[in-house]
């Protein structure tokens, strides 16, 4: 069964133009060609990257964070409450007060709510307040602190950004060294000259294996890395990138693959360095590096990639040979990347426009913001502007209002 699936999958008519096949990629006369079995090398490289990353984050990124003055916000631990913890884990992390929901309902709709809906509404802040004996404000504060406890700290974000910055910068330099003397870097049509019998160079081999191993390691570490709002897009991007690198290797699209990887590496290290400065509160450095990154990203991903590279993978090849399945598959993966580029470009342009128009600091909209420990109303109470329901301390009511109020 597996042998039959393998024969069907590797049919020459699927992956090569008419008249060409796997026999054309057999090593001969000192010339070496890419082989599908070479891709297994990426797995131990991915594991090695995971090990190197742990060492790098501990002995390089962490001291660097201290050197840049990164100061972690001290998060207050919540008072242990079994009822609230159960509600937090099993129901919702953001309970809503009933009084915030009622204005959206008409009198008729409110009166016609079923018992189930009423219970759902009551199972929020007011209901929890009744069950715990705490005030509503104390319950809300508990949930704010509990949500903050689940958020990754700045040092973890900084270490992740530092690791990606180091790799992308080295990959960009390595790609430049590998391509600087190659004619297809300057004339993209050269990438198909002699296809598919394109001799594999040692620099191309290691460029491919290291890139494939790195993105495989990123896919492995997604579960433990900081989860952002574009988590699904990140998964799609990593899977599409791994498929694209693997496929282009198997069918000897080596020249096109190296150009695409080099173009992507040209901007990514700037984004990661901007994140590092942002986490370290170096706002000016972060803002100006981000603007430089935005410019390079738009030029490379929205101009060069679709109008130059994809032109030479989509339009130009059909002038050399009839389209085949591999042609559509390869360009389909490029279209997935282009859609992701447009999605991220929209976020980048919005951030850049906000900075240029308001001179405000750049913030990563994909990450959840740290919640303040106290609401605006509580801050006013703390300053003596509002006196209502009595003060609260660390989730417990103060019964004697003549006592001095401790700092939260």
List the helices and strands and how they pair.
Layout: H1 2-9, H2 12-15, H3 42-67, H4 82-90, H5 98-101, H6 107-111, H7 115-122, H8 125-132, H9 136-150, H10 154-179, H11 202-221, H12 231-250, H13 254-279, H14 283-314, H15 325-358, H16 376-382, E1 392-393, E2 396-397
Antiparallel strand pairs: 1-2
Helix pairs in contact: 3-10, 3-11, 8-9, 10-11, 10-13, 11-12, 11-13, 12-15, 13-14, 14-15
Question: What's the number of domains?
Answer: 2
Approximate helicity band: 55-70%
- Taking all residues together, what is the mean pLDDT? 77
Radius of gyration over all CA atoms, rounded: 28 Å
Largest sheet: 2 strands, antiparallel
Order of helices and strands: HHHHHHHHHHHHHHHHEE
Tally of strands: 2
List the total number of helices.
Answer: 16
Q: Major sheet: order of its strands?
A: 1-2
Q: Which structural class do you get from the secondary structure elements? A: mainly alpha
**pLDDT under 50 segments (min length 5)?**
99-123, 374-408
> Outline, from the CA principal axes?
elongated
Keywords:
mainly alpha; DNA binding; Lag1/Lac1-like; disordered C terminus; two-stranded antiparallel ribbon; homeobox; 16 helices; 2 domains; elongated; 408 residues; HD; transferase; single chain
What does this protein structure show overall?
Residues 156-357 form the TLC domain. Keywords: DNA-binding, Endoplasmic reticulum, Homeobox, Lipid biosynthesis, Lipid metabolism, Membrane, Nucleus, Transferase, Transmembrane, Transmembrane helix. Residues 370-379 have a biased composition (Acidic residues). This is Ceramide synthase 2-like isoform X2. Residues 128-154 bind DNA. With 408 residues, the protein is an all-alpha fold. It folds into two domains: 32-69 and 153-358, no CATH class; 82-150, no CATH class. 62% of the residues lie in helices and 1% in strands. The chain has 16 helices and two strands. It has helices at residues 2-9, 12-15, 42-67, 82-90, 98-101, 107-111, 115-122, 125-132, 136-150, 154-179, 202-221, 231-250, 254-279, 283-314, 325-358, 376-382, and strands spanning 392-393, 396-397. A two-stranded antiparallel ribbon has the order 1-2. Strand 1 and strand 2 form a beta hairpin. Helix 8 packs across helix 9. The radius of gyration is 28 Å and the shape is elongated. The N and C termini lie far apart (67 Å). The model is unreliable at 99-123 and 374-408 (pLDDT under 50).
